[in-house]
Amino acid sequence: MYEKTVLRVIAYILFIAFAIIIILPLVWMIITGFKTNQELFLSPFALPKQWHWENYTDAWSKGIGVYLSNSVIITVAATALSTFVSCLAAYPLARLQFKSKKLWIYLILGGLMLAPQSSVISLFKMVRMAGLYDTRTSLILIDAAFRIPFATFLIMTFYKSISYSLDESAYIDGASTWQIFRKIIVPLSKPIIASCAIVSFRAVWNELMFANIMLQSTDKKTVPVGLMNFQGMTTTNWTLVVASMVIASLPLVIAFLLLQKQFVRGLTAGSVKG
């Protein structure tokens, strides 16, 4: 009994320390956004003498609002597209039998190993030929394509853990393959689908390379590219840059808070069968 109590106390201490390590930089960023440049360099860890709310309003007016809206549109569209396609692609690979099944699985594994950097030139030429250069559509399609293999592999693994007796019972009752997928498999797979959506959302939101190459117009740039340019335009006002980073991180925090229960369930669902 005594040993269990000691282990529990140690676990609580470790969790609290880990939470502080994660939360402290976020709190520092928020507070720094209210400081002046002089306060940032002279007393980086002290509270501001005066809370400068104009740092956040100036960051919004100088373009972070436009970058934020572009990132929301591209990220939501790419995440929805990749998650939808992955759910459809994973079902036959996990629940059905057909001749080229192994080939498709190997193609998905190949997609997991493909480095985005190796396809920049070919994708750039394809986008120019298709007339999609400097459009949000090009970035949505590219980001979704690179998220599909990983999401498909995870969802396929989860589909396999669902009892096949559910399919057999549904077939006996006259259900079609599409009805089984839509009314049985997808509802049971909500945790892993939410987990894949969050991972894809974060990856697309932070994507810089393709956004910097495929988008040229300032009014179409995403948050990572905008922050890079924003930092260049405001090299002496670092508190304004920090305020912009705080604003840019809000959608990620909101997305996780909305889907955190499904995300945790998705992480733990594969460890327990039955």
What does this structure look like?
With 274 residues, the protein is mainly alpha-helical. The chain has a single domain, classed as MetI-like (MetI-like fold). It is built from 12 helices and no strands. Helix 3 (54-95) packs across helix 6 (136-161), helix 3 packs antiparallel against helix 11 and helix 11 (223-233) packs antiparallel against helix 12. The longest helix is centred in the first third of the chain and has 42 residues, at 54-95. The protein is flat, with a radius of gyration of 23 Å. The protein starts with a helix and ends in a 5-residue tail after the last helix. The mean pLDDT is 85.
What level of helicity do the residues show? over 70%
In percent, how much strand structure appears in the residues? under 5%
Compute the CA-based radius of gyration.
23 Å
State the end-to-end CA separation: 31 Å
Shape, per Cα inertia axes: flat
Q: Outline the low-pLDDT stretches.
A: none
Helix-strand category: mainly alpha
Q: How many distinct folded domains?
A: 1
